[in-house]
Each structure stands twice: as structure tokens, then as C-alpha cells.
């Protein structure tokens, strides 16, 4: 499977409450609203956006990736109000190994409502059904309890802790690793 086959034109995905779609320049205000919130950025690898230009630069980076047909983000749009409330993506994809890793961020006001689990399940489904994946993993800092819960509720299994795996924001972090295999995903689909 070629990366361009999927990311040549990032497909729009839909769930009960969400639309997962390409970002556009019109998303700047919504993205800045959550990207500038230090509570949201506490457990991510990027710095809190201090100015709108920080968000604009990141948004342009993503738009350039769409143009180059590279692995890029889905914006998470909340159907009820049309707002962009976060992003989700495959942080990396190794087609030769049929494996990938997901990452995500969500606006603080939408935490605790099962929204990210809903988005993660849809992206996991897409990965197994359209990208020929055998394994999908996700990681979070050990202290990020909310993200660990998302992974568990999305059907992932805790594999262990990678000690001091990431150097982010001036310190080394222990990281929890979760994964789901295609056969586990298919077994769960058959149950439901």
C-alpha cells in the first residue's frame, strides 16, 4: 500500500457526532482556541500556542502536507455546532510493516464525553479496512490518564511502559504504549 493512495486526497470520515476532514485556513480560530490552552497542551509534544501566528504556521504545515500527499491530520469537527474541536492522525505509518501509530488532541471543553474515543475508533477502523494495517498503536505520557482511557475504550491493550522514551519540553518522559491488532479488531466487530 502506497502512502499516496490514502493521503493523495485525505478521505472524509463520519461518526454519529463527528466529521473527520481535511483542515482548511478557516479553522484557524477554532484551532487557536484549543492550541493556546495550556491544559490541552500539557501532555502533547508541541508547545502551547502563544500567538495566532503559531497556529497559522502549524496550519500551513498541515496544508503543505496535504499538497505533498504526505501523512497528515484529520480535523475533528463537532456536528452539533460545526466547530473544529481537535485533530487526530497517524503520527507515523510504515506500510512495509503494516503498522502505524495514532495521535490526537481535543479541546478541553469536550473532554470526558467519549468524543475522542469515537474519533479513535473510526480512525482505527479506517486503518484496518483501508490501509492494510495489522497493528495500530498509540502512546501517552504515563501521567496522562485521560488519553490512556481513550486507548482502552477504543479497544487497545496496554503493552507496557517505555522508560524515558521521549524528551519533550525540557524533560524525559516515561510513555505508556497501547496497541490493537487486526484480528482483535475483527473479533470485536463480529461480537458487535
Question: What features would you describe in this structure?
Answer:
With 192 residues, this protein is α+β, with helices and mostly antiparallel strands. It has one domain: Gcn5-related N-acetyltransferase (GNAT) (Aminopeptidase, 3-Layer(aba) Sandwich). It is 36% helix and 31% strand. The chain is built from 7 helices and 8 strands; from the N terminus they run αββαααβββαβαββα. It has helices at 3-7, 28-35, 38-41, 52-68, 115-130, 145-153, 182-191; strands at residues 13-14, 18-21, 74-78, 84-94, 99-106, 135-141, 157-168, 171-181. The protein has an 8-stranded mixed beta sheet, sandwiched between helices. α2 (28-35) crosses α4 (52-68). The protein is globular. The model has no long low-confidence stretch (mean pLDDT 94).
Largest sheet descriptor: 8 strands, mixed
Unreliable spans are none
Radius of gyration: 16 Å
Task: Give the % helix.
Answer: 25-40%
Count up the helices: 7
The count of β-strands is 8
Would you tell me the structural class of the helices and strands? alpha+beta
Order of strands across the biggest sheet?
1-2-3-4-5-6-8-7
